[in-house]
Amino acid sequence: MNGLSTVLIVVGLFLVGGIISFARQQMPKGLIVLLSVSAAMCLTAGILRLEVWS
Predict the structure, then answer these.
(1) How far apart are CA 17 and CA 50, in angstroms?
(2) By the 8 A CB rule, do 43 and 13 touch?
(3) Which among 10, 19, 25, 49 is least surrounded, fewest beta carbons within 10 Å?
(4) Could you give the CA distance from residue 47 to residue 37 in angstroms, rounded to a whole number?
(5) Rounded Cα–Cα distance for residues 36 and 8 (Å)
(6) What is the pLDDT of residue 44?
(7) What pLDDT is stored for residue 28 in this prediction?
(8) Would you state the pLDDT for residue 53?
(9) Looking at residues 10-24, what average pLDDT do you find?
(10) What integer pLDDT is reported at residue 52 of this predicted model?
């Protein structure tokens, strides 16, 4: 597990926490969708960069 994959996974999990927090605060749905897409992209990129796949 290299540094960049770790950073991407941590950022993705941070954004997931933001999604939960914003959903509880009744923030606009567009913002929650934007955070969801960003979190999914970060987590996917971090998981695909793991050296397990090669």
Answers:
(1) 22
(2) yes
(3) 25
(4) 15
(5) 14
(6) 94
(7) 95
(8) 67
(9) 96
(10) 77
In terms of Cα–Cα distance, which of 42, 34, 33 is closest to 14?
42
Q: How many angstroms from the chain centroid is the CA of residue 3?
A: 16
Q: How many helices (H) and strands (E) does the chain have?
A: 2, 0
Q: Is the pLDDT of residue 54 over 80?
A: no
Phi-psi region of 28 (alpha: psi -120 to 50; beta: other; left: phi over 0): beta
| CA separation for the pair 14, 16 (Å, rounded) | 5
Confidence label for 2 from pLDDT (cuts 50, 70 and 90)? confident
Q: Tell me the Cα Rg of the chain.
A: 13
The b-or-e profile of 9-36 (16+ CB within 10 A means b, else e) is: bebbeebbebbeebeeeeeeeeebeebb
